Amino acid sequence: MNIKGVNMKVIGIFLLGACAFAADLSGNWLVAAPRNDGTFARTYFDIKPDGTTNKGEIHTPSAHYIITEVTGGSDGFTLSATYTDNRSVRPMKYEGKIVGDELHITATGGRGTPREMVAHRVPEGEGLYPKKNPIPALHKVPYNGLAKTPPMGWNSWNKFGHSVDDAAVRGVADAIATNGMKDAGYVYINIDDTWEGDRDAKGNITSNKKFPDMKALADYVHSKGLKIGIYSSPGPATCAGYEGSYNHELQDAKTYASWGIDYLKYDWCSALNLYTNEEMQAVYQIMGDALRQAGRPIVFSLCQYGRNEVWKWGPEVGGNLWRTTGDISDRWMSMANIGFRQNDLAPYAAPGHWNDPDMLEIGNGHMTDDEYRTHMSLWSMLAAPLLAGNDVRDMSQATKDILLNKEAIAIDQDPLGKQGTRLSQNGDQEIWVRELAGGAKAVALFNRGDKAAEMTVKWSDVGASAKPKVRDLWAHQDVNVEGGSYTATVPVHGVVLLRVK
Ligand code: GLA
Q1: Residue 292, pLDDT score
Q2: Are residues 245 and 297 located together in one domain of the fold?
Q3: Most exposed among 248, 407, 439, 499, judged by the fewest C-beta atoms under 10 Å?
Q4: What pLDDT shows up at residue 89?
Q5: Ligand 1 center–CA 160 separation, angstroms
Q6: What angle do CA 34, 264, 377 make, to 5 degrees?
Q7: In angstroms, rounded to a whole number, what is the distance separating the alpha carbons of residues 421 and 435?
Q8: Residue 304 belongs to a domain with what CATH number?
Q9: What residues line ligand 1, using a CB cutoff of 6 Å?
Q10: Distance (Å, whole) CA 252 – CA 258
Q11: Is 399 buried (19+), middle (13-18) or exposed (0-12) by CB count in 10 A?
Q12: Atom 1 (ligand 1) nearest CA
C-alpha cells in the first residue's frame, strides 16, 4: 500500500526491526571480569531502547560513559560512547552480537588493546553510579600532631602495582628492618591500591585474597618496629577500580584503626565523576573528621594531583601531606619535570604539612645513578616525603648508597621544616638553597644538561660567611674552600650537594 508515495511495507519492516533490536539489546547488562585476587572488575551496559534520545550509559567502578550512538542489530551492533572528566574526552567503541542470553562484546579505544567481554542481563538499576551527596560546610580539622618531619618509608605502587600482596609486604618489612633503612628513618610500609575486597553485609570493607588478614599483617609490621599504611579513595572506586570509601568514610576509618593502620593515602580517582575541583576540600574534610573520630593517630596523605591549589587548604582538612603533581614515572624527564617545578610551593611546607611531589623511583632501573642522586638530593632540598618505590628486598649497592645517604636524609628531615628554593638558573644549571636549623644551609648544584658542567656558587649569594665550613654530602667529605666561592664539575643530569655553615 502507498500513502502519499510512502511505502508502508518498508516502514513496517523498519519498525519491526527497531522493536526486535530494542527488545534484544536494551536493558542492563553486566560484565563481571574476575581478577586473580577474588574480586571482579564490573562493567554495566545500561542500554536504552532504540529511538530514544538518551541511548544509555556504561559504568565501570571508576568511570562513567555516555552512549552516543547505537547502530546495527542483535547479530552485529556497535555502541559508541564517550568518557569525559575534567582532563580529557575519551571515545570508546563496543562491537558485538547477542549469543543466546549473552552479549559478546569487543571494546576498543581508551587505554589498552581491544578487550573481549561477555555480559549477562541484570535487573534495571543495578550498578547505577551513586548519587552525589551534599557536601558539608567547611571547618578546620585540628592538626593530628604527626609528620613533624616529612614522612619516610616505602610504598608498593611504583614497583609492585597490582601485584602487591601480603608476602611482598612482609618481605619488604623484613628487609627494611634489617638493611639499615629503618635506622635511617624509613618506617612507613604503605600498601597502595589493589588490596581492597568487597564490603560485607554490614558494609565493612574487607581485604581481598592477596591480603588474607590485614590485622595480622599490621601486627607483623609493628613487630618489626615499623608502621603500616593503607590506601583508599573518597569516590566509590579507587583508581584501579577497587572499592572506595564513598558513603563509608567513618566506618572505614574505624576499620583501619581496628587493624592498627598508621597512614592513609586518600586518592581522588572516581570522586571526579561526582564532585568538582572546588568541592574537594569539603570532601577531604569528611575523611579528616572520620580519622580524628576513629581515635588512632593516622597520617593523612591527600592525593589529588595538586588540583585546586591543595597546598592552600591541605592543613585545614587535617592533611599531613598533599600530592602536588600527576604521577611520577621512572624516567629522567618525569622526575626532573616534577621536581624542578616545585619552587613556588615552598611557602606552604611546614612541620606537620608537606608538599608531596610523589614517591621515589630510585632503584627501579630506568635512570642512571647520577639521575637517582639528583632525585634524592632534589627531594631532600624540597623537604619532600621520602617513600622508596623500589623492591627493597633486592637492591644494588648503588641504590642502597643513594637511599641510605644519611647526610642527604638529614637535609630532608631538617627540623626547621623549610622547603628549599631555586637561587639561580643559568640554562640547564640550577642552584638551590635550603635553610636549615641552627643557621646552616644546604646548597645543591644541579646540572640538567646532557654535558658535564662546571658550576660555581658564591658564598655571599647563599648568605654564608666568606670562608664557611663546607661538606660534600655525596663524597662524604669536608671541602676546603678559598676565595669566597666554590666551583665543581657536575656530571650529566647530576648534582653536587653541600652543607654550608
Ligand atoms: C593514582 C595515584 C598513584 C597510585 C594509583 C593507584 O594514579 O596517583 O600514586 O596510587 O592511583 O591506582
Answers
A1: 98
A2: yes
A3: 439
A4: 73
A5: 12
A6: 110
A7: 9
A8: 3.20.20.70
A9: 157, 192-193, 238-240, 267, 303, 327
A10: 10
A11: buried
A12: 239
